[in-house]
Amino acid sequence: MSLKRVRNQPISLFVNGTLMRGLPLHGNLAGAEFIGVAQTAPRYRLFSVRDIHPAMLAAPEGNGVAVTGEVYDINLGHLQRVLEGEPAGLGLGVVNLEDGSACLGILWASSRPPAMAIDISAFGGWREYQAAGGKEAVGAAH
Fold it and tell me: Which sequence spans correspond to the domains of the chain?
């Protein structure tokens, strides 16, 4: 069997937490090409995990929100290194964007929210949640 069709072209990756520009794990994306800020389709819930990082999960139909994040083009070798640096529980999945396109993205690997996580979906994104004051702002958003 020939593998002539296997390519090492960049793929698009949606990130919604500490990998974004100016945040603690952004250095893990060094060398990836920033494509732009994007929003998901309204199909996700966003949780704060101990106010350290977010966890985005697919939501039941009709119960999701659009989540703001960033899209990068990244090659597979670099993606592997990024995933190795992600907090436990986060992994890779397909993310639907508001424009109808889809790309890979960092998601919570389980179908259940992380233990003791706070639903921050009402903020629409990790930056927005942090700008509002973190967990102290959760009561104000509900």
Answer: 11-137
Residue whose token pair is 């233990």: 115
- Give the C-alpha separation, 79 to 54, whole Å: 19
Q: Residue 96: name the closest of 55, 126, 59 by CA.
A: 59
The CATH class of the 11-137 domain is: alpha beta
The predicted-structure confidence for 30-43, as pLDDT tens digits, reads as follows: 999 999 999 999 99
Tens of pLDDT, residue by residue over 102-137, are 999 999 999 898 888 999 999 999 999 999 988 777
- Total count of residues recorded for the chain: 142
User: Which residue, among 82, 64, 59, 61, has the nearest Cα to 13 in the 3D structure?
Assistant: 82
Local structure of residue 27 (DSSP, 8 states) = G
DSSP state at residue 63 = -
pLDDT mean across residues, the chain: 91
Alpha-carbon dihedral 12, 55, 23, 52, rounded to 10 degrees: -160
pTM above 0.85, yes or no: yes
Residue 6 tokens, joined: 């296997």
- SS3 state at 121: helix
